[in-house]
Design a protein that fits this description.
365 residues, alpha+beta, eight-stranded mixed beta barrel, disordered N terminus
C-alpha cells in the first residue's frame, strides 16, 4: 500500500521504517498498523487513511478503546483494562466483533478486568459467540499477570473475583510481558445438579456413565479407540470428558458441537477427549462451549485431572499436553485443584471508538 499522499518528505518519512513495521489493509476496509512496541491501532478505512497524516491517524486511533491481546498456551483473548478504560459498551456484542479472526483483533473471546470490592480485581469472560462464561483457567492467569504487571497488585498471591467465586492466584513474573502463574481453581463440583447434567447419579457423581450425547457407534469410534462413557465435572463451568486411545482420530469439529448442545447439558458444555499416556501425563483435545476448538482450556485441564483421579486412570498430579503446550495440574481427591502455566502478552492496541451499545448496559470500573 502506498504511504501518505504528497510529494514532500514529512518528519514521519524518516521514522516510517521504524515506526510502521507493517500496514495491512483489512477485508472490511479498515487498516491495522503494527509498530515495534507491538501496539496496534485500528484507525478507520484505507481510503480515509490515505488522506490524513500519520500524526492525525494516531491521534484519532487513541480516542478508541485500549486493549491487550494475551494468551495462555495459545488460548487467546482480548483483554480490556477497566481500571483505566471507562467507556460504555455492550460486552457481548463487542466480544463477537473483536474476537472475529478475519474482521477483528481475533481471539477465543473477550475478557474484562474490572475493579472488585472483594478481591484485587474482577474478571468477566465472554466467548467468541458473545455468551458469558463463568470461568476461564487460562484467562484468569492472564488477568493475574495484567494486574501485577500494571501495578494494581504486587507479585505473589493475588485474588481474582470470577463467576465461581474469588480465586487465589500466585504470580511469578518471568519478564515484562509474561508470568508463570499457579491458580487455586477451587473445589470441583461433582453432583449432576451442580454441573449441570441431566443424568441420575446414585453416588452423587457422574463417572464413567453411559452417554447418549456422543451419538451412535461410528467408524471413528474404532479409529480413536473411544470409550463412549462420560465423566462430568464443573470447575464453575460445565465439562464432559471422554477417554480414547488416539485423540487425533476424533472428528472434533463434528462431534464437539453435537455434544456441546445435547439436551443432557442444560447450559451446554465444554467437551474434552483424553488420551492417557502414563499415570502422570495425558493428551487432551478440546471443544470449548461458545468458541469451538481451542489451543488450550485451563478449566478443562483441571476437570480432566479430576476425572482421572475419580475414574482411577491417572495420578493426583499430572501434566496435560494440549495443542498449545503443557499445563501442570494437581488434585488430592478432596480439596482444590491447582493449575500452573504461563501467561503472555502478544500486543496492545486501540479498538475504534464506535463501540456497540445496548440499552441500559454499561460496564465500568
Amino acid at each position: 500500500m502506498a504511504g501518505p499522499r504528497g510529494g514532500g518528505r514529512s518528519r514521519f518519512d524518516g521514522e516510517s521504517q521504524q515506526s510502521f513495521v507493517r500496514l495491512r489493509e483489512r477485508s472490511n476496509g479498515e487498516v491495522k498498523v503494527i509498530r515495534p512496541s507491538r501496539e496496534v491501532f485500528l484507525i478507520g478505512n484505507s481510503e480515509e487513511a490515505a488522506d490524513v497524516s500519520p500524526e492525525t491517524r494516531f491521534d484519532e486511533a487513541r480516542q478508541g478503546l485500549a486493549f491487550v491481546k494475551m494468551h495462555g498456551l495459545g488460548n487467546d483473548y482480548v483483554y480490556i483494562d477497566r481500571f483505566v478504560e471507562s467507556a460504555s459498551f455492550a460486552p457481548a456484542a463487542l466480544a463477537r466483533e473483536i474476537a472475529d479472526r478475519h474482521r477483528g483483533v481475533g481471539g477465543d473471546g473477550l475478557i474484562l478486568v474490572e475493579r472488585s470490592m472483594r478481591a484485587d480485581a474482577r474478571m468477566r469472560m465472554f466467548n467468541a459467540d458473545g455468551s458469558e462464561s463463568e470461568m476461564c483457567g487460562n484467562g484468569v492467569r492472564c488477568v493475574a499477570h495484567l494486574v501485577v504487571s500494571r501495578g494494581y497488585a504486587a507479585a505473589g498471591d493475588v485474588s481474582i473475583e470470577t463467576g465461581r467465586g474469588v480465586l487465589v492466584v500466585s504470580v511469578a513474573p518471568t519478564g515484562p510481558r509474561s508470568s508463570r502463574v499457579r491458580v487455586d481453581m477451587g473445589t470441583p463440583l461433582l453432583h449432576p445438579d451442580e454441573i449441570p447434567v441431566a443424568v441420575p447419579a446414585s453416588d452423587g457423581r457422574v463417572v464413567d456413565v453411559e452417554s447418549q450425547a456422543v451419538g451412535t457407534r461410528a467408524a471413528w469410534w474404532d479409529e480413536a479407540g473411544l470409550d463412549p462413557r462420560m465423566t462430568c465435572v464443573s470447575m464453575g463451568n460445565p465439562h464432559v470428558i471422554y477417554y480414547c486411545n488416539n485423540v487425533a482420530a476424533v472428528p472434533l469439529h463434528e462431534i464437539g458441537p453435537q455434544i456441546e448442545t445435547h439436551p443432557l447439558f442444560p447450559r451446554r458444555t465444554n467437551v474434552h477427549f483424553v488420551q492417557r499416556q502414563a499415570a502422570g501425563r495425558v493428551t487432551v483435545r478440546t471443544w470449548e462451549r461458545g468458541t469451538g476448538i481451542t489451543q488450550a482450556c485451563g478449566t478443562g485441564a483441571s476437570a480432566v485431572c479430576v476425572a482421572g483421579v475419580l475414574s482411577g486412570r491417572t495420578a493426583e498430579q499430572i501434566e496435560a499436553e494440549l495443542p498449545g503446550g503443557v499445563l501442570e495440574l494437581a488434585w488430592d481427591g478432596a480439596g482444590s485443584v491447582f493449575m500452573t502455566g504461563p501467561a503472555e502478552e502478544v500486543f496492545t492496541g486501540i479498538w475504534p471508538a464506535d463501540l456497540p451499545q445496548a440499552p441500559n448496559v454499561q460496564c465500568g470500573p
